[in-house]
Amino acid sequence: MAQTKVSALPLKLISSGFGSTDTLVCVVTLPFYQSLIVLFIIPQPSYFLPFMQTLLVGSNNAHKVQEMKEILETRGLVQILVPNDVVNFPDEIAETGSTLEENAYIKAMAIYENTLQTCLADDTGLEVDALQGAPGVFTARYAGEHATYADNRAKLLAALKDIPENKRTARFRTVICYRDDLRTLFAEGVCEGSIATEERGDAGFGYDSIFIPHGYSQTFAELSAEEKHRISHRGLALRHFEEILRGLE
After folding, report:
1. For a surface tag, which of 87, 142, 190, 233 has the fewest beta carbons within 10 Å of its beta carbon?
2. Which residues does residue 194 pair with via DSSP β-bridges, in sequence order?
3. Contacting residues for 188 by C-beta, under 8 A, at least 6 apart
4. One of 91, 122, 123, 162 is an active-site residue; which one?
5. Which residues, other chains included, contact 230 with Cβ-Cβ below 8 Å and sequence gap of 6+?
6. Is 181 noted as a catalytic residue in this protein?
7. How far is 185 from 179, CA to CA, in rounded Å?
8. How do residues 119-150 score in pLDDT, each as one tens digit?
C-alpha cells in the first residue's frame, strides 16, 4: 500500500520591510500523485534594522534630525519618524551627563518613556587637541547656554588664533543610543580632522564651516551632503549601529 511521505527543510528568508521570516519547505509525496512542494511562511517579529517598520529620530535640533533622516533613509528603513510625527515628544531634555554616552542615553530614555516609540538619540562632541579635548560635551553650548552656531564658531576660532595649522587637529565624535521594548544599544562614530583658520563654505550647520576632515582640503560645509554623510561622524555612527543590530539577528 502506498504511503504518504513528508520531508521538511527549514530555511531562513529575509523580507525587506516586514521582518525576517522562518520558511518551512515541505516536499509531500502522496499516493498516486507526483510530489508537491509546499511553502509555509511564518513571519517573525521585526526588531532589527533594516527590518523594523519605524524608527523615531529623537532630537529637537531640526538640522540634526534632517541629517540623520537623510542618512537613515539610504539604509533601507521602511519609515523614519521625526518629532512632529508623534505625540508627547519632550520639549526639552536636560543634558546633565558628563560624557557623550550619558547624554545620548538620557535623551533616548526620555524620548522612549514619553512616546513609547522605538527611538534613536545621539550626542556629538568636537574634541580639539590644542584645547585638551574641549569643547567636548559642551560643543552645542560652547559659547553659552543659548549660543548660536556662529557664536560657538567664533569662540573656537578665537581660542585657536595663535595655534599653527599643524597643531589644530581635532575630531568629531558621535555616540548613538537606541532604545526599543527589548534593549538599549550604543554605537559610536569618529571623524578625524582639523580646525580651519577661517570659515569656509555655506552648507551644513554647527561647526561644519571650520572643520576639515582628514584627507580633504575642504571643510564639511564645502562638501556635498552625500559626501559628508559618507565620511562624517554621524554617518559612521549610524552604520556602526546598523552592524550591531544585524549581528543580533
Report:
1. 87
2. 169, 212
3. 173, 174, 175, 176, 237, 240
4. 123
5. none
6. no
7. 7
8. 999 999 999 999 999 999 999 999 998 899 99
